[in-house]
Amino acid sequence: MPGVTHDDAPLLADLMPWSVAPPRLGRGWPAAPDAASLRARWNALMRAAGPDRGTLFQPTRSRTPHTAVAQLPGRSGGTERLARACGPCPEPVRVLYAPFDEQWLIPDQRLIDAARPELWRVADERQIFVVEAATGRGEHAPGGLARGERPAGGPGRGGTVPGPPLLATSLLPLLRPGRIRPLYRRPGAAEPNLAPGLLEHLTARLGHRVDPVDVLGWTVAAARPTPAGIAVPLTGDADAWARGVELGRRMLWLMRRDGERPRLPGGRRPYVRAPLPSRPLTLRYDRDEEALLLDEGRIAPVPPEAWDAEVNGVRVLEQWFARRTEAAEPGTLAAIRPAGWPQTWTSELLELITVLALLAELLPRRAALTDPAAPDPVTPAELGEAGVLPVPSAARRPASVLGTHEEGPEGQLALL
C-alpha cells in the first residue's frame, strides 16, 4: 500500500489545535537552578526600598514595581503592588527552563512580563505539555531575551545530534520560541486538546480504542519539521501504530522523568570518577575516554551520543552547564546564587546524561517509523471527508469555564 509523504501528512497545528505562546519572563532573576537562591533574591528585594527596589527589580514596559496584576491561577502569591509588598516569597515551583533543563521559578505574575495564565489554569499532575523545539520554518535560534536573560551555552559544533522536533514535559515550560500545546484543555485530564472527532476516527480505522496519550505518543515519535510547520504522519495500520505508540510512550517517559528514575545498565552507568570542584568553570568532553570533564572533575562513562545531543543548534549539556556557571552582574539579584556546586546538581547532571543516552538509542527506531513512509496513511483529505478537518475555531481557543475563583489585582475577585 502506498505510503504518506510529509507533504501529505496533517500538521500538528491541526491535530492539537489549541496552542499558547511560551511565557516571557522579561528578567532572568525569578528563575534559577536552585530554590534557595530564589528565596534569598526575594528577601533581598523585600529589604530594598524606594528606587533601590525598582533598580533591583529590573522594570520593563510590561512590568514595574507599580504594575497591578492578578494572582497566578492556582498559586498563593500576593496581588498588592510590588512596590509596597512585604510578604514571604511565594513557594518556588519546578519548571522546564530550557531543553531537558529543569529549574525553579517564583510563581508570581508581578515578576513575569507574560506569564500565560491560561497555561497555569490547566497545569496539574495529569497534564502533559508539548513544546515545539523546531517549527520547520527555520525558527531555531533562541530569541526574545530581555534584560537579565542570557542565552546559555554556545552554538552546536560538528558531531552534534539533532533532537526530536517536539519535547514533552509535566512541568510548566518556559522554552522559547516554539508554541506550547497542552494535551488537555481542562484540569484533571478533561477534554483532550485534539481535533474534534480525531480519536473516534482513529479508533474506527485501527479497530481498537485510541486514547489521548496514545495520540501524543505517536505524535512525539513521528513528528517531522516541514516548510509548512511540524507534520505528523498518521497511519491506519494497527501494527505500525502499535510500534509508534510504544516508542512514543518511552520517549514521553524519558522526557517527563515521572515516577521511577531512568537508569543505564551497570557497565554504562555514569559515575563521578574524580571529585567535582566547588565551582567548576569549564566543561570539556574526552571522546576517547568517554569522559565529561568539569575542570579537574571527571564523570564517566558518558556516551558520545549524550554529549552530541543538541536542540536548536545548542548542545544540551553545554547549555545546562552554562546556566549554572555563567557570570552575573555584581549587585543584581541574579548574582545571589550558591557559593559552590551543590550535590543536587551533580545528581541532576548524572540523570540528564542518562536521559540523553537512552533517548539517543531510540533515534534509529524513530527514523524507521516513517521511513520511507507510514503504511496505510490517514491523510488530511481523509480527515476532511470525515469532518475532522478543518478544525472549528473554538478548538483553537482555551476552555472558558473554570471551577475556581481567581484573585485579581489588590485582592479583588477576577472576572473571567
Task: Give your account of this protein's structure.
The chain is 28% helix and 16% strand. Mean pLDDT is 89; it is low at 1-5 and 136-158. It is α+β, with helices and mostly antiparallel strands and 416 residues long. Strand 15 and strand 16 (291-294) form a beta hairpin. The chain has one domain (6-411). The longest helix is centred in the C-terminal third of the chain and has 27 residues, at 343-369. Helix 6 (212-222) packs across helix 7 (238-256) and helix 7 (238-256) runs antiparallel to helix 10. The relative contact order is 0.19. The protein contains eleven helices and 20 strands. A four-stranded mixed beta sheet has the order 1-3-2-7. Strands 14-17-16-15 form a four-stranded antiparallel beta sheet, with no helix packed on it.
